[in-house]
Structures are given as C-alpha cells and as structure tokens.
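Ger(X)C family spore germination protein
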Amino acid sequence: MARKMKILFILVSISFFLSGCWSKKELTDLAIVAAMGVDKAEDGKYVMTLQIINPGNVAGGMRGGGSQSPPVTIYSATGDNLVEASRRASSKISRRLYYAHTNLVVMGENLAREEGVATFIDAIDRDHEFRITTTMVIANHSSAEELLRTLTPVDKIPANKVLKTLEFSQKKWGHNVKTSIQDVMKGLHSSKGATVVSGFRLLGDPKHAGLPENIQESEPESTLESSGIAIIKDGKLVDWQYGKSARGTVWIRDEIQGTDINIDWKGKKEVIAYQTNRQKTTVSGKMKNGRPHISIHTRVEGSIGEMSEPIDITGGKMIPQMEKKIEKEIEGEMKKAIEQAQTNKADIFGFDEVIRRSRPDDWNKLKEMWNEVYFPDAKVDITVEAYIRRAGLRNKSFLSSLEEA
C-alpha cells in the first residue's frame, strides 16, 4: 500500500511541472506573413511592406457577385529601423504578425546599393521566428513594395510565384540562382564581403499590378519575372549580371541544374539546341610567382534537343565538331562572368576559399587585399569537356529526310 501511495505521489508531483499549452497561438489571432519587403524612403526611414495571406480567399477564390477577392493583403509601415517599422505595421492589423511562414524577403535596389544587405540581415537573424533559409531577392530596377503588391494569376500567393519561378528557372534555364538569407550570410563571410543574390523585377505598370483586373486578364498587363544576378561587394549591390554572363557565374559556382545552349553551324545562328543532363565544375588553385592561379574544369553531358538545319550526324564526324562548339560557348560564358567580376573587384566565385585551402600560408598574406588587388589580377585557366550522349528519338534529322525526298 505504501509503495502505491509513493507512486501516486510522484505522478501527481510530476503533473505540476508539465508546461501544457502556455505558449499556444490561435490561428484566428495570427496574421501569416508570406513575404516581407524593405525599401528606403526619401527621408531616410525604412519602408516595410508585408504580404499577408487571406486564408479564406486563397481557398475559395470567387465571391458572391462575380468579383474575385485578392488572396493577400498588403500593409506598409515606416520606421527608423526594421523593428520599429514592424511594430508600426502591427498597429494597422487586428492580428499578431507571424513571421515563421515567411518564405520570401525582398530588398529594394536603392536600399541594396546605398546601405547594403548586412543591417537588413542582422535584424532577421536576431528574430526567433524568422528562418534564415528564407529565400532572398533584390528588386531589379524597382522597389520591394512594387514587387509585393503585384497580383499573379496562376499562383494565387505572389510570394509562391517568385519562389517557384526561381526554382524552375534555375533547373531549366540556368541564368539565375535561388539564394537564401543563409547563403548570403555565408557568402559575405567567406568571400570578404562579396557574393550574389537573386534578382526579380516587375514588368508593366506598377499601379495596375495590384488591381484585381490584373489576374482576371488572359494576358496580364503586369507580371513578375526573374531578372539577373546581383553582384554584392562589401555588402552592397555594385552591378548586375544578365544572360550569358550570369550563366557563366552559375557554371563556375557549380550551381547549374539544367540549361539549353544554342550553337551556330556553318555561318547560321543558333542552329543546334543542346540540352544539358549532367554537369560538374571543380575549381582548384595555387600560387605562381606570387600571383594566384585558378584552374576551372567543367564536364557536361547532354543531348541534342533541336536542329533547324538538315544535318546528318550518323557519320560520326559531326558530333565531335558540335562538342567543340559547345565547349567554346561555355568557356566564353565563364570568361565573361570572370571579367565582369574582376572589373567590379568582387570575388563572387569563392576563389579565395580555394587559395585558402590549398595555400594557407600564402593566403594569410593575400587576404587583406584579396578583392582589391589579388583577385582582379588572378590568372584563370578554363577547361571544358562537353559530350553529346543522345540525339532524341532519331539520329538522322527530319529535315535531312525531307531534303533527300
């Protein structure tokens, strides 16, 4: 009996130490922030824009009377710092701002150029609700507020439109990279304040972009699209990379997941479309005569996706010629990217880490003036191996068979 009483006493005592639901948050009391944007006003204050999900409108869509209610609501507030701006925004909303589901952070281009990303990231990194795995973009030739106010027709939540576009564009096109706050933080630490950030821009009229009519049109007047790669130096935006230069950066950073390369043939432009399937880039470094020497080796395998001219590849001589042209194209893109980065004196490729790992003693002498002196003068050798493994469902071009007929 005494033993049973002891057990009962222990069980009752333990119950007093159970926390229960002391920190519970009712969904009806939360304003779920899907995306946050920050700009700099003319008076020097921060302008914070919040894209808040309307749960009922996301699920339902159409309301009575035939009108479509927006799936998100936009709130803006200003402050001397981000914390103050967030507090001021909460005074406009009947619910508690909840940042744990924020998947997108947008910084205005002017703010990124004038002040940089470091202060912005510091505020986010200190917040216990914010996740540093959140995707970060810089508004290209527009403000963060304009991007967040744009309504999108296919993805009801505009933040999801940006995230999916970056993801699929990197997999299929290769002219951009999807960067998180954590990626930017690592880049600023490891490359002496130089790194890259995804770019996104608004096409069309900013005033029309936030109207319900924009998502009711078969061809929206205002749309969002991925646009370039932002070069960050000393934490600030210094330049943009587009097109082949941007893809060259993605090649060197070994972040290409898939892309198409068009090559010329016998004086005609972009005759052959080459689709990559596998690719790998390795970077090594050493010192020669006191000068850093970087070696880049890229191996890519792919298939022929299209030929707009009648070319017979069954003989075995054409394939090696095509591979050489593909190698030359990729090498040219890398050179463009390196030249632009060296002009901006911003090591966005992580060459400094390569030298640090291979020659730690030499790196101690170089690190203080790496971006300003040694990186712009670094010698870079590029080797590309390209292979055509498949030609689709046919080896002989359909155009060739028509020509023969």
